[in-house]
Amino acid sequence: MKIVVTGWSGLIGRPLVAALEAEGHDVTRLVRRRPEGPDEAAWDPAADSIDAAALGGVDAAIHLAGAGIGDRRWTDSYKREIHDSRVDGTKLLATALAGLERKPSVMVSASAIGWYGDRGGEILDETASQGTGFLADVVAAWEAAAEPAVAAGIRVVHPRTGIVLSRDSLTLRRLLLPVKLGVAGKMGPGDQWWSWITLNDEVRALIHLAVASDLAGPVNLTAPNPVTNKEFISTLGNVLRRPTILPTPSFALKAILGTELAETLVLQSDRVVPARLEADGFEFESPVLVDALRSVLEPTG
């Protein structure tokens, strides 16, 4: 298949492109700079510009581009960047694909479990309603921006991704040092649910949705066994053989990250399950947290 990928240089994009090429797919990367080869094409969402001619013959699109949600404090300007980088890029790509004479069969357009808002212990599958808050509103607008592709008859999938576990992921980078130093513990109340997925399973699921599936609409990309924050930190400590008895109070998290970011990314509770993905026959290689963390953190070979 000929597959176009945005956000290819990010945490998920690099291994995704490598996996697609290893399977024999022809990958075109959308870049904001001048293209450097036949496998690159230009686009600039901020300028509403895309090389539509380079999309000719594309069978599928996997759209991952967007400013990092947890990379910086949520100032008003950065919140606008988070919103616009997702909505503008999605609308631009969806419109370009819809305008092609030969349209791709599928657009896999990244989304997030932030759609569900703070829901306590409620078990959340894809039928759950939209929650409230900045991130829930962003996700709603982000998914709606793909409507031109839907209207053109393209199968559009919105993979709602949870916490991605990788040595390079923001969550683990922030946790590893204090856990290794033995100065970590539950964060805030500790009973908030964290829904996670390994980077390997994330990549496998995205390829499944683009290549092997007929699913459309929202699909939760989280492992089938979410855990509480307390259990997550405790399990990480067990894997690293370090104690996790020093809690971080909510006020400290808010002071470090900013109130809104801390409440959304750390203290918010989302007990999300991948109902549609599992019903579609996808099998997780790392469905249980302890095994997932070992696969991510322990050296191999």
Q: What's this, in brief?
A:
The protein is of the alpha/beta class. The chain has helices at residues 13-22, 76-98, 134-144, 147-151, 170-180, 199-212, 229-240, 250-257, 259-265, 275-279, 289-297, and strands at residues 2-6, 26-31, 40-44, 49-50, 60-63, 106-109, 111-112, 123-124, 155-161, 163-165, 193-194, 196-198, 217-221, 227-228, 271-272.
Describe the 3D structure.
The protein has one domain: Rossmann fold, CATH 3.40.50.720. The chain has eleven helices and 15 strands. Strands 1, 2, 3, 4, 5, 6, 7, 9 and 13 form a nine-stranded mixed sheet that branches. Strands 8-15 form a two-stranded parallel sheet. A two-stranded parallel sheet has the order 10-12. The radius of gyration is 19 Å and the shape is globular. It starts with a strand and ends with a helix. The mean pLDDT is 95.
Task: Output the keywords.
single chain; 301 residues; alpha/beta; Rossmann fold; 9-stranded mixed beta sheet; two-stranded parallel ribbon; 38% helix; globular
